[in-house]
Amino acid sequence: MAATRAAPHAREIFTSLEYGPVPESPTCALAWLDTQDRCLGHYVNGKWLKPEHRNSVPCQNPITGENLASCLQGQAEDVAAAVEAARTAFKSWSAQPGVVRGQHLTRLAKVIQKHQRLLWTLESLVTGRVVREVRDGDVQLAQQLLHYHAIQASTQEEALAGWEPMGVIGLILPPTFSFLEMMWRICPALAVGCTVVALVPPASPTPLLLAQLAGELGSFPGILNVISGPASLGPILASQPAIQKVAFCGALEGGLRLLIQESVWDEFMRRLQERMQRLRSGPGLDGAVDMGTRGAAACDLAQRFVHEAQSQGAQVFQAGDVPPKRPFYPPTLVSNLPPASPCAQAEVPWPVVVASPFRTAKEALAMANGTPRGGSASVWSERLGQALELGYGLRMGTVWINAHGLRDPSVPTGGCKESGCSWHGGPDGLYEYLRPSGTPTRVSCLSKNMNYDTFGLAVPPTLPAGPEIGPSPAPPYGLFVGGRFQAPGARSSRPIQDASGNLHGYVAEGGAKDIRGAVEAAHQAAPGWAGQSPGARAGLLWALAAALERRKSTLASRLERQGVELKAAEAEVELSARRLRAWGAQAQAQGHTLQVSGLRGPVLRLREPLGVLAVVCPDEWPLLAFVSLLAPALACGNTVVMVPSAACPLLALEVCQDMATLFPAGLANVVTGDQDHLTRCLALHQDVQALWYFGSAQ
Amino acid sequence: MSARSRGTELDLSWISKIQVNHPAVLRRAEQIQARRTVKKEWQAAWLLKAVTFIDLTTLSGDDTSSNIQRLCYKAKYPIREDLLKALNMHDKGITTAAVCVYPARVCDAVQALKAAGCSIPVASVATGFPAGQTHLKTRLEEIRLAVEDGATEIDVVINRSLVLTGQWEGSDFIKTSTGKETVNATFPVAIVMLRAIRDFFWKTGNKIGFKPAGGIRSAKDSLAWLSLVKEELGDEWLKPELFRIGASTLLSDIERQIYHHVTGRYAAYHDLPMS
Which residues form the Aldehyde dehydrogenase domain (chain A) (predicted)? Predict the structure, then answer.
């Protein structure tokens, strides 16, 4: 409806039965902005912080372009001040009993409830999102999150004994962040005793309002600090010594991909188009619209995508009652997009939906898993068996069956592949912000002269260094890849020295090709290993433990040569065997869990292996560390590529001999060589699911 | 009534293919009132439109000609004249869609409407209302007598034992229930019924009407029902030929809302004529 037309009278409406606007008044949001004289700063340690000489960025209404307020572009000193405040607050906050923290979070939830109108009005006004979504969805879920985590906090001493909060958490928000995603991270962090410094893009007043509400509670001012500043402050935040962990916050959900089976294509498209025609778009603060706007930039992005899709031969259907001007974009359905076209690979912008047909469930899985995005998906089918099969097969963080978008604080959310690697919500989500008690504070190691381009590129040449003196038989020479010892691609080796400086032996010099081969072998073994029952996995780990014990004297004497006393060496071997057995038991114990939550219907939590893990071992404890890192990865169903201790990889190679006989080929692969170079190769390999690094500071 | 549905051959395979995603229906039902609200002039207009869909009903054991007469008068003049004038709607001939009574009272209703000079149809419940557990012979006779007395619409109670054994009948309208059950017109039920109507229309081109009855008491509820039909079936169904609301006290609540819209004040009980 154009704004210029005079409002129709009851007489006309009686005939047309059209909907009218249900505008929510923005006055409370504007009044709040007025309390800051329309000039927002940072919020640190319970107070507004407005340092001088900072650039300011206007915060605009996305529909009218009117300036609502100005926000600061922070600088490094502001970040440092916030981190310092958070660090001081951490000392008292983490020392509180969990119950006290829980009560504080409950108070925060109540404050949000009291000011919810201000919160949703401000968010809707500034971002253009529909007020109904923010009011009934975001704000309610935010309160639920706080209540849920308050309860988690109060039982922390018993339930999470042996774990302590990490420290100060840095949170970085992207330009189109979602208020809810931010809460998903703040709540567990605060609940377990961490304090938070959030870096928000300028022109976002909602986090500042949240921080003010938290700060005005009085008791613990520094637990939530918000700095508004450009993305370039991100590395500065991460390199602050007090920051223990940096969390990235997700952006608002974009468009969707629909995969529809051919046999129901026509019927489905008809119903979808019918429903699209009923959608209404308008200003976010109108209570009777379904969609708002996400700003001019998002509108342009959508338009570009649709034009490109059309030029590649796709059909476009647009419908709905939408104001014709920028920045409103109608809901759009794109179909018949050729799968090989660039649009089919790109991320779908909001509010576009791309529909593609498939013939069999297998094809659908291949299409769905064939994108780098792995956040969430929903499967719709009346056949339970098929729905579950697809659910298991999809590599996504969350799969809903016959529903979409259901969220609950007790159900973990996270993603796979490019959609992120952290999990939030539920009892598991707390571990993101915990570490075992007694772990020393992590010292930031962002070295100033880090050059990513040259790190680990060159391998120093190695020359013969004297006769090998050692117990015979010497371990086989080569890299342990694909179940056997192979010669390295580079055809050279490096000397390993023992404690007295004599030559202990030569090991192969692995390079990029060898890494590639190792990762391939690991991937080949991965499906079979993941498909093994937990009992079978436990059995293999126990068999390896027994083999280690049989080999005890050889291992102990090698350790002795590295300067370890005999008694300690034997103890190390025994401990290694014990660890293997312990992880074997763990493998058997873990399983899937069925959870009941506030949502209608059960929640099934599947623990899935990641895939191929790369591990770079530390120099110390050449045997124990190797085994301790190998075991958990295998126990959970992953296959590994290990780079053993640089100081003495021979211990690892001894273990490989047993693995050669016991393990399926490719399950565990060991590549020796220059640690930095191999790390670089592994990090750059795009098909390694995770990398555990215990190497040098760089 | 507009052109009647031509009907179609009974195809049992359609019925066996029906699936309902119950949790999804419940979720949509929860959102209905939040999704589409109307305020101010829109609300006033929609409420007046809702009045034109009402089957003004009285189904009590103590119905006599006097309360039927009052009811019929109210059906002809549902909203106070001055309120209609204020909205410039006094000349639109706003009446309820029909008057719904027991078969024995059809005569009284027809007479009362004639005396009031009103041409709205008289609907009669029939066929052993409300349980439907009477002989087919008496049920058919009931319908015949009601029609002879002047009823032009019949609310038929289907034989539920036939339904439960899979033997189906056809109709022009489907109604949520008699209105005398413990649970009557709820949104989840309505969503399923409306989708069925839509599917039938897509398959055969026939439009079947919808009537929720029982438990619709507040003006706010009636607005939700209107927007539900508009969202699921579209504006074509928002006509008395295809949509009716079976209600009795709803009308007074609508009148109070309109009073509030026009005067800005809340009416006392005695300010508005009783029905």
Answer: 48-251, 257-435, 496-697
